[in-house]
Write a structure and sequence with these properties.
Structural class: alpha+beta
Low-confidence stretches: none
Helix content: 10-25%
CATH architecture of one domain: Sandwich
CATH topology of one domain: Immunoglobulin-like
Largest sheet: 6 strands, antiparallel
Mean pLDDT: 96
Distance between the termini: 56 Å
Strand content: 15-25%
CATH class of one domain: Mainly Beta
Radius of gyration: 27 Å
């Protein structure tokens, strides 16, 4: 578990069922278990270390080779889990390699799928280790590289030469590219290059700002600092003497280091808001806002860098600081209070705002103990006493530190990245160097990382052509060239074969650019929301060849992954009208009253299908759940695809069946799961109007407008009129009908 404690438990009601999984700390995170595993490894408890690996791979790992954010103690995905985190997918591979777990069944069923998932989704997918931001993170990518090099060794042990070659080639590319993704050369904090927390797009010199979360400010990415880049040293990607690493440390110290009565420590990053509020000690929960404090694990990470850099004195000082901040013997907390002593609030103060009182250098109010902190202490103690990083993977160090990994050339001319293909196989064409071997893996990211492989030799002129089988969905092609002396090169292409077999019962197009409700709505201002994310272009209903499944496909103008999910921004509602349904089994109500619209009486629904990236609803008009919706989303084709068993609809859709289709924004913190409105757009709220105005459309209560950014209207009906709340009260939506 991440911790035996629940952070800020004194401020959160245990009697509220909504708080059952609050904090998530009493659950299993692959990242935290990896950290605990390093303590087991370095202290010699290899059997328990193997048990930890087997738990992650055989109980927690998902079918596509990824890991859930967190699981219950039995390995099942936790109810509060969300998205994928690539370091969590990589660590179990690394763990298995370092324990010599080369078993063929374990490799085929768990290691190989994890490798396939990583190379298809990396280097930047989902959030980084603090679970708050997405982008090109040094700590995450370091874990990916180490995991792939480890995976290649396990592939070698199992005779899987193509996977081994591709894993190494991809790892080499990402290791070479990492400074270009995260090392800014024009940042304002120093006159030399330095590593930043992450770059949002892979350009660390871009003037891109993002909100750090937890009530914190919006900052230029070049000014947000953490020391996650030290994972590049710990995991063997670079030498501790690397100049970029050395030049970045003074920036870290000037920005996020502080000294307490018990020693030095570091914040996660500057302006962190995850912690008890500095001014009065108010707990972070339940407001979700506060002030971040020092994390002992980061003192431990810095100490390990000192060990690698032969500075035992500094390492031991940081080890003592970790021990000094403990709230009891062995109880090293998540955070340490670095501010002046603060008295507890008077007895009887509302616990949601009351300070529990803090001492400089002592535990802050979040979780104590933290499993990661305990593991980091053990790891640093063992490393400091031996003078080396015992958990650093030897094959990664050998590849990148002890030797200089060479690079060859590779150009892929077909297929084009992000292109659609009409069938299988796909022809891969390119140029490398004569005598090089070309390896290709084709991983379907819509079908549990199903992967095919191919290889060939280049022609005498360096050209090559391969035929690679693909299946319906998005396929990521990783193409690697390897020279006879081991130099590598890598290219990545994604293609889409967006094919749903069956009979198309309805295919309705919708105008581009009408993603503004009645004509005046505006998107939230956060860069998480991409232009076109709420703009419907096409809606289809398809019956499977055997009639057992009905599939719905909704295409939008942009389907960029958001909040760590391929379908993180959108909330789609399809209200299904079955003309044969009894009137008593039909409804004209919206999914929730807060949606502020109704369904037209002739389109009254007997089934509602609601899909989003973090949940779903499939109910009848009485609110009875009918089953599970199968949901997928494809960034390239921009189709959201979801299907249900045909029988569950109450019959097979046919002539006269209608569908009322509504697209808005999802918000898991909203009672109706739909993103709210403000008078003008805010970071995470739609604007009723783009700017303040006396127009009647702009002066209404934002809580009363219909939560419908785009709808599909039947012939003769315009969206601007149908959604105009100044003309219609209530706003009533009509369906599109199978002819």
């Amino acid at each position: 578990m991440a911790s035996l404690a629940s952070p800020w438990g004194q401020a959160v009601s245990a009697g509220d069922p909504n708080n059952l999984f609050f904090g998530s700390y009493r659950e299993v995170f692959a990242r935290d278990l990896y950290e605990a595993w390093t303590a087991l490894l370095t202290s010699g408890d290899l059997q328990t270390a193997r048990d930890a690996v087997n738990f992650l791979l055989t109980r927690q790992q998902l079918a596509d080779g990824s890991m859930p954010r967190n699981s219950l103690l039995n390995g099942r995905v936790a109810p509060d889990s969300f998205g994928s985190q690539l370091d969590e997918a990589a660590f179990p591979i690394l763990m298995a390699y370092q324990l010599g777990m080369t078993d063929a069944t374990l490799y085929a069923n768990h290691i190989r799928p994890a490798i396939d998932f990583l190379i298809a989704h990396g280097p930047a997918f989902g959030v980084e280790r603090w679970e708050e931001q997405s982008g090109y993170s040094p700590s995450t990518i370091a874990a990916e590289v180490a995991g792939l090099v480890a995976g290649a060794s396990l592939a070698d042990a199992n005779g899987d030469a193509i996977t081994a070659a591709v894993a190494r080639g991809v790892a080499d590319d990402w290791q070479r590219s990492l400074p270009g993704w995260a090392l800014t050369t024009n940042g304002p904090l120093a006159g030399h290059p330095y590593y930043i927390r992450l770059s949002r797009t892979g350009d660390p010199n871009a003037a891109i700002a993002y909100n750090v979360g937890n009530g914190g400010p919006t900052l230029d990415q070049r000014t947000v600092i953490d020391q996650g880049f030290l994972e590049m040293v710990r995991l063997g990607l670079v030498s501790p003497a690397d100049s970029a690493i050395a030049e970045s440390l003074p920036v870290v110290d000037a920005t996020i280091q502080a000294t307490t009565a018990t020693g030095a420590g570091l914040h996660r990053y500057n302006s962190d808001g995850y912690g008890d509020r500095a001014s009065d000690g108010r707990p972070w929960a339940p407001s979700g806002q506060g002030t971040g404090h020092l994390w002992p694990v980061l003192a431990g990470e810095r100490g390990e860098y000192d060990v690698a850099n032969s500075d035992a004195t500094s390492a031991l000082s940081l080890l003592a600081a970790m021990r000094g901040g403990a709230s009891g013997v062995g109880l090293i907390p998540e955070q340490v209070w670095e501010l002046p002593n603060l008295a507890p609030s008077p007895f009887g103060t509302d616990p949601t705002v009351a300070s529990i009182g803090f001492q400089n250098g002592g535990a802050a109010g979040s979780a104590s103990p933290l499993t990661w902190s305990a593991a980091q202490y053990v790891r640093l103690m063992r490393d400091a006493t031996t003078g080396s990083l015992l958990e650093r993977p030897a094959n990664v160090v050998s590849r990148y530190v002890d030797h200089q990994q060479g690079q060859t050339s590779l150009t892929v001319t077909a297929p084009a990245d992000g292109s659609a293909v009409s069938g299988s196989p796909v022809t891969v064409i390119g140029t490398s160097v004569s005598g090089n071997t070309i390896y290709v893996t084709a991983t379907n990211t819509d079908s549990n990382s199903q992967t095919t492989t191919a290889s060939t030799q280049t022609q005498t002129d360096g050209t090559f052509t391969l035929m690679v089988p693909v299946t319906g969905g998005t396929t990521v092609l990783n193409v690697v060239a390897i020279s006879p002396t081991g130099e590598t090169a890598h290219a990545r292409r994604a293609v889409v074969f967006d094919f749903t077999p069956g009979t198309v019962l309805l295919d309705v197009t919708d105008p581009s650019g009408d993603d503004n409700g009645p004509g005046n709505y505006a998107y939230p201002t956060s860069d998480n929301f991409h232009a076109g994310a709420f703009d419907i272009l096409d809606f289809r209903v398809i019956e499977s060849p055997d009639g057992s499944t009905t599939t719905f496909k909704l295409q939008v103008r942009d389907l960029s992954p958001t909040f760590g999910s391929p379908l993180g921004a959108q909330l789609v509602d399809v209200y299904v009208h079955n003309p044969a349904a009894a009137a008593s089994d039909q409804s004209t109500a919206a999914s929730f009253p807060q949606r502020n619209y109704m369904i037209d009486a002739p389109a009254a629904w007997s089934r509602l299908i609601e899909v989003q990236g973090f949940g779903q609803r499939y109910i009848d008009s009485h609110g009875t759940t009918l089953g599970t919706v199968n949901i997928s989303a494809n960034q390239i084709s921009r189709f959201i695809t979801f299907s249900v068993p045909t029988f569950s609809l109450g019959g097979a859709p046919a002539s006269g069946w209608g569908f009322t289709v509504v697209l808005t924004g999802q918000d898991g913190f909203s009672p109706d799961q739909a993103r709210s409105f403000a008078s003008t757009p805010q970071s995470f709220q739609f604007g009723v109007c783009a700017a303040s105005s006396t127009d009647p459309h702009c002066t209404v209560d934002p809580n009363t407008v219909p939560k419908a950014i785009d709808v599909i209207t039947p012939p003769g009906v315009t969206q601007s009129n149908e959604l105009d709340y100044t003309l219609h009260n209530p706003v009533t939506l009509k369906d599109v009908v199978i002819p």
